[in-house]
Amino acid sequence: MRTYDFTPLMRTAVGFDRLARQIETAARSGQENGWPPYNIESTGEDTYRIEVAVAGFAPEELDIEAKENLLTVTGKKAPQDETVQRTFLHRGLAERDFERRFQLADYVVVKNAALNNGLLVIELKRELPEALKPRRIEIADGSALIENKKAA
Question: Which protein family is it in (predicted)?
Answer without folding.
Answer: Belongs to the small heat shock protein (HSP20) family.
